[in-house]
Amino acid sequence: MTLPAPFIHDTAIVDPPVQIGNGTKIWHFCHVCGGARIGSNVVLGQNGYVAGSVVIADGCRIQNNVSLYDGVVLDNDVFVGPSVVFTNVTNPRASINRHAEFKGTRVCRGATLGANSTIVPGLTLGAFCFVAAGAVVTEDVPAHAMVAGVPARQIGWVSEEGNRLQTDADTEHLVCVVSGRYFRLTEAGLEAVNSAAQGE
After folding, report:
1. Could you tell me the domains of the chain?
2. pTM for this predicted structure
3. How far apart are alpha carbons 178 and 88 in whole angstroms?
4. Which whole number is the average pLDDT over 67-82?
5. How far apart are the two ends of the chain, measured CA to CA in Å?
């Protein structure tokens, strides 16, 4: 499928040079700084800000009022809810220049960040993890983990489809009731198993 050329709303400001993939839409009152790299089929909601070193991979959905500061990297298919807050310094002071202390944040493939959540800098949020609305993330989040609260704590596991996993009584494995896929917990984290064999 051939994607159309990028769409940039008349009120948006895009400072060259910027890489923007086909099918991407940049909406009202956004500001994309020079040097940013934005992939294909991305949606950047209104009043967004993208700093010059930010990387946004293909298929990301970034809702309204989100600022992506230097050091933020979003892998493919990340969902960023409205008014999510990214930070790049842990102890900011107006009177002290801490630009040399900026820390990066990596959000891995398929992750979901709920509305009004806050991400402390220097973290990695694992693939397909789910951050609940309003959570304050202060530690790395494992792949497929669901976290909530202030500070955020793990409260469960989610599938690639974003459904909270349930315990299957017969196999004692975790199961996605929508897709029918089974998972087991290992020392390395959550691991998919053969759903047809129900964990064998």
Report:
1. 7-92+102-158 (2.160.10.10), 161-200 (no CATH)
2. 0.93
3. 37
4. 97
5. 38
